[in-house]
Amino acid sequence: MKAAHLTLVAAALCFAASHVRAQEDQPPPYEKGPVWSFTEIKTKGGHFDDYMKYLDGDFKTESEALKREGRLLDYKIFVVTDPRQNEGDVWIAREYPNMAVFDHSTADDYALDKRVLGSITKSNEQMAARDSIRQFLSEVMAREVILK
Q: Under CATH, which number does the domain 30-147 receive?
């Protein structure tokens, strides 16, 4: 009786193991998709419209240049209607084709800034000017998965 019980247990374990192997042989139910970054910004008092002008100007110009080069697929601006204390009121979402897009040399990045903004000095000055109208709170990067 005990041998029969052990035989049943062994058979059940073999079946379970073969079932697991069969599942492992199946492709995953998703594929890697694009990479998204989400930047949380808090505009300083009285400067919301100033920041929106920046987004519609230099930010948009640079983003469109990145799209033309294939480094950026899309971007979106979201306004939080009622942010809680210490939360941002503007979210910037950027969609990149993959992680490899971030693997450019610093020289390539500087060259892009120069083409789009005119010079690295101008780019740095603009970054400093933005700090007077907004506070960078956080950035999160996530890979989208495409369910099959």
A: 3.30.70.100
